[in-house]
Design a protein that fits this description.
By secondary structure, the chain is α+β, with helices and mostly antiparallel strands. Helix content is about 40%, strand content about 15%. The chain is built from 4 helices and 4 strands; from the N terminus they run H-E-E-E-H-H-E-H. The strands form 2 sheets. Strands 1-2 form a two-stranded antiparallel sheet. The protein has a two-stranded parallel ribbon with strand order 3-4. Helix 2 packs across helix 3.
Length: about 150
């Protein structure tokens, strides 16, 4: 977290950052490796703890929480971790039960209270994306984004 809030603030000002490279197979940063990230017309901060840290909340113009049942979260994580990260089903299940689900209950789900808009994370996304776009327009956040 010590690096996340300052880097989000820099991007929000329209400046580039050097983001550390993360190795999902070892759950650690790759020492000495970064990727340059250029600021764009929008900054989307996405992640399980995006609404948890108080230092980040003032940097956001719109806070969206996607509410998804635990079972579906696990199914999606299992598929992603096996297909994209080369993990075994057993290792994914073990990590989910030991750390992911308890952290979700303790930290992630309560952070929904900081959201301006809560979206259902099941089913088709079409109308849900439209809700977000409508809210962005209502806040004047789409001007000049063309």
């Amino acid at each position: 977290m010590a690096l996340l809030a300052p880097q989000v603030a820099v991007l929000a000002r329209g400046e580039a950052i050097e983001r550390p490279v993360y190795d999902f197979s070892t759950h650690t940063r790759v020492e000495g490796r970064t990727e340059r990230v250029e600021a764009g017309p929008f900054l989307i901060v996405e992640g399980l703890f995006a609404l948890y840290y108080p230092e980040l909340l003032p940097l956001y113009h719109l806070r969206v929480y996607i509410d998804t049942p635990d079972g579906l979260c696990f199914e999606r994580r299992l598929k992603r971790d096996i297909e994209q990260r080369g993990r075994t089903e057993e290792s994914v299940r073990r990590q989910y039960e030991a750390t992911v689900r308890p952290s979700s209950i303790a930290y992630v789900r309560p952070s929904a209270a900081h959201a301006d808009l809560t979206i259902d994370g099941t089913g088709a996304l079409d109308w849900k994306v439209e809700r977000v776009v409508t809210e962005l327009r209502a806040r004047g956040l789409l001007a000049g984004a063309g």
